[in-house]
C-alpha cells in the first residue's frame, strides 16, 4: 500500500482521503517512508518536518470524520522549495549563513503562496534543495550539498528548483512549490521528467522569497508555480495557490488547436536526442489530428536575452546586502564573477551589464520588455499554443557551475543550450507548461515547454492536458532506476 500511495497523483490522493479509502495519516506516512528510503540517494528533501506533518494529517482525518468542508488538497502531502519562507520550519533561501552560521532561521509566518497551499488542506512534508541564492541550473546547496537526478545519480536534476523536481519524480512528494526566473521551474522538470507550470507573471504571490531585512528587488520575470506528475495536478495546484476553485476543464478539440512549433530559437544548439524525442511527439500530435506548423514569435530572442540580463542584473544587484550592488563592488560581477559562474557567452555578458547598469538603462530595458510583451500578444492572436524546447540538452553529469557542457560530442558554453530558451520567455511573462514527452538516446527524460497568451493559464492547462493524452510521458516513481 505504501508504494501504491506514493505512485498516485495529488488529485488521486485527495479523492482517496475525501472518500475515506485512505487516511491522511496513511498517505503522509507512506511519503515519509519513501523519503527515508530514497532521499539519501538523491538529497532532494533537505529539511524534514515529519512530526508536524503527521500531526497535520491526524487533524485532516479528524476533519473528514466530522464532515467538515474540505479544501482541494485536504490531507495531501507536498514539499516546498527552500526559497520560500515557512512558518516554524528552517528556511535558508539557498544562503549558507541563514542555515548554518546563524543556525536555523525559522520564519514566524509562511510566504503567502505557502499559506495558500496550507489553507487548501496541503500537509507540508519539508523543504527541497536548491543552489546558492537560487541561481544555477544545477542544485548544489552551500550547506546541504548537491541534489541528484533520480534517473541517474551522477547527473543533475537541474536548478534552481532541482530538489523539488527530483522529489516529485522520485515519488517523495506528489506536488512541490517552485519558482522560476530563467528556467528554474522548467529546466528541472525537463531533466527529471516532471510536469510544471510557470504561471503568468504576477498571478501567484512571490512575497517572502528573500531573507529578512533584504528588499524584494526582483520585480520582473520571477514567478512561483507548481511541479507535479500530471497536468491535472498543476491545475489543482494553481487553483490552491490562487485560493479559488479551478474552473471545470473545457478541453478543446485537438484538430481545432492552432499550434506553432520552433525547433530552436536564436540558433541555440539542440542535441540529436532531444530533437528526435520532440519530433516523435509532434508526429504523434499530427496523427491525433493536430495541425502543428513551424512558426516562431516575431522576437529577436538573442536581443530579448540581453534585455532580460539587464533587467535581472540591475534588480538582483539592487537587493545585494552590504552595498555589494554599488560601485566599486559591482565591477567584481562585471569583470569576472558572472563569467566564472555561467561560462562565456551572451548570457553572462547580459547579466554583467545589468549589474552595473544605470537607472536610465534599466528603464530603457523595461520599455524593450513592453515591446516584447506586445509581440507575444500579437503572436497569440494567430496561435493557441507555441511549443519549443526547454533546453538543448538533457540532464548532464554534475560539474562545476559554468564549466562547458557536451552536446553531441562537442563542447559548448554552459549557458548556451539553456539560457536563451528561458530568458526572453520569462521576461515576456507568458504562462507555460513543461510537459515530458519522451526520452533521449540514453534514456533520460525530454520535455517541451508549451506557451500561451498571458492570463490564459487555466485554458493552457486544459489544452495541454489533451496533448498529454497523446504524447505525455511522465515516468511512474516505482520504475525509476535510482542508479
Q: Oligomeric form of this entry?
A: single chain
The gyration radius over C-alpha positions equals: 21 Å
Strand percent estimate: 5-15%
First-last Cα distance: 24 Å
Number of strands: 15
Average of pLDDT: 93
- Uncertain segments are none
Going by helix content, strand content and strand pairing, the class is alpha/beta
Inertia-based shape = globular
Highlighted features:
eleven-stranded mixed β-sheet; alpha/beta; 483 residues; 16 helices; two-stranded antiparallel sheet
Short description:
This protein has 483 residues and is α/β, with parallel strands linked by helices.
Describe the structure.
It contains 16 helices and 15 strands. It has helices spanning 2-7, 10-18, 24-42, 50-66, 96-101, 112-119, 162-169, 186-192, 231-241, 272-287, 301-318, 330-342, 346-355, 359-379, 419-428, 457-471, and strands spanning 45-48, 77-81, 123-128, 140-141, 145-146, 175-180, 195-198, 223-228, 258-261, 291-294, 385-389, 405-407, 410-412, 432-439, 445-451. It has an eleven-stranded mixed beta sheet with strand order 1-3-2-6-8-7-14-15-11-9-10, sandwiched between helices. A two-stranded antiparallel ribbon has the order 4-5. It has a two-stranded antiparallel sheet with strand order 12-13. Strand 12 (405-407) and strand 13 (410-412) form a beta hairpin. Helix 9 runs antiparallel to helix 16 (457-471), helix 11 packs parallel to helix 13 and helix 11 (301-318) crosses helix 15 (419-428).
Amino acid at each position: 500500500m505504501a508504494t501504491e500511495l506514493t505512485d498516485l497523483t495529488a488529485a488521486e490522493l485527495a479523492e482517496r482521503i475525501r472518500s475515506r479509502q485512505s487516511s491522511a495519516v496513511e498517505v503522509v506516512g507512506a511519503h515519509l517512508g519513501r523519503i527515508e528510503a530514497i532521499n539519501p540517494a538523491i538529497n532532494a528533501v533537505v529539511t524534514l518536518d515529519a512530526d508536524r506533518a503527521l500531526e497535520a494529517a491526524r487533524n485532516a482525518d479528524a476533519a473528514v470524520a466530522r464532515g467538515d468542508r474540505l479544501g482541494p488538497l485536504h490531507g495531501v502531502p507536498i514539499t516546498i522549495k527552500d526559497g520560500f519562507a515557512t512558518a516554524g520550519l528552517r528556511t535558508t533561501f539557498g544562503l549558507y549563513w541563514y542555515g548554518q552560521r546563524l543556525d536555523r532561521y525559522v520564519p514566524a509566518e509562511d510566504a503567502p503562496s505557502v499559506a495558500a497551499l496550507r489553507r487548501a488542506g496541503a500537509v507540508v512534508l519539508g523543504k527541497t534543495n536548491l543552489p546558492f541564492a537560487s541561481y544555477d541550473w544545477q542544485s548544489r546547496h552551500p550547506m546541504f550539498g548537491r541534489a541528484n537526478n533520480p534517473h541517474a545519480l551522477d547527473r543533475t536534476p537541474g536548478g534552481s528548483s532541482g530538489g523539488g523536481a527530483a522529489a516529485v519524480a522520485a515519488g517523495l512528494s506528489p506536488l512541490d512549490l517552485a519558482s522560476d526566473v530563467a528556467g528554474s521551474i522548467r529546466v528541472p522538470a525537463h531533466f527529471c521528467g516532471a510536469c510544471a507550470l510557470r504561471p503568468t507573471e504576477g498571478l501567484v504571490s512571490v512575497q517572502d522569497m528573500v531573507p529578512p531585512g533584504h528588499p524584494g528587488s526582483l520585480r520582473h520575470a520571477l514567478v512561483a508555480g507548481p511541479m507535479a506528475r500530471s497536468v491535472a495536478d498543476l491545475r489543482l495546484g494553481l487553483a490552491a495557490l490562487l485560493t479559488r476553485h479551478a474552473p471545470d476543464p473545457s478541453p478543446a478539440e485537438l484538430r481545432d488547436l492552432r499550434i506553432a512549433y520552433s525547433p530552436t530559437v536564436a540558433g541555440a544548439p539542440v542535441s540529436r536526442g532531444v530533437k528526435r524525442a520532440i519530433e516523435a511527439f509532434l508526429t504523434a500530435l499530427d496523427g491525433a489530428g493536430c495541425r502543428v506548423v513551424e512558426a516562431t514569435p516575431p522576437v529577436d530572442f538573442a536581443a530579448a536575452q540581453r534585455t532580460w540580463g539587464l533587467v535581472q542584473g540591475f534588480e538582483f544587484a539592487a537587493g545585494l546586502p552590504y552595498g555589494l550592488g554599488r560601485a566599486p563592488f559591482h565591477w567584481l560581477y562585471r569583470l569576472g564573477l558572472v563569467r566564472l559562474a555561467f561560462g562565456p557567452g551572451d548570457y553572462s555578458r547580459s547579466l554583467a551589464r545589468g549589474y552595473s547598469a544605470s537607472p536610465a538603462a534599466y528603464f530603457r530595458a523595461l520599455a524593450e520588455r513592453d515591446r516584447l510583451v506586445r509581440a507575444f500578444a500579437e503572436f497569440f492572436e494567430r496561435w493557441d499554443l507555441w511549443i519549443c524546447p526547454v533546453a538543448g540538452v538533457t540532464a548532464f553529469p554534475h560539474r562545476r557551475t559554468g564549466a562547458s557542457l557536451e552536446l553531441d560530442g562537442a563542447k559548448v558554453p554552459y549557458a548556451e543550450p539553456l539560457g536563451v530558451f528561458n530568458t526572453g520567455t520569462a521576461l515576456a511573462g507568458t504562462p507555460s507548461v513543461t510537459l515530458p514527452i519522451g526520452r533521449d538516446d540514453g534514456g533520460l527524460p525530454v520535455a517541451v515547454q508549451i506557451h500561451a497568451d498571458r492570463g490564459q493559464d487555466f485554458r493552457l492547462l486544459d489544452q495541454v492536458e489533451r496533448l498529454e493524452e497523446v504524447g505525455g510521458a511522465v515516468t511512474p516513481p516505482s520504475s525509476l532506476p535510482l542508479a
